[in-house]
Amino acid sequence: MIIKVICPNCNAETKLSLAESNYDGLFRCWKCKKAYILVINNNNIEYCKPLSDEEYGQQLEINFK
Ligand SMILES: [Zn+2]
User: Fold this and answer.
1) Cα torsion for 20, 22, 27, 29, to the nearest 10°?
2) Interval between CA 36 and ligand 1 midpoint (Å)
3) How much distance in Å is there from the Cα of 5 to the middle of ligand 1?
């Protein structure tokens, strides 16, 4: 499943490859490097909220330790 995410900051399009139709996690724009919390439900983007660098670091610790 490929989901297209348009960065709210710079409008760059990113194609995310998902194994499932739901996703809840981090997304970082390849172009402007801005990080977002991204929530996808049934292949629809429900939520895309910018993260500060500080929050991004905390999320990384939670998700990847
Ligand atoms: Zn961007």
Assistant:
1) 80
2) 10
3) 10
* Among 59, 60, 41, CA closest to 3: 41
- pLDDT band, residue 12 (cuts 50/70/90): very high
Task: Note the pTM of the prediction, 2 decimals.
Answer: 0.74
Structural domains present in the chain = 2-64 (2.20.28)
Task: Find all residues with CB under 8 Å of 39, minimum gap 6, and list them.
Answer: 23, 24, 45, 46, 47, 48
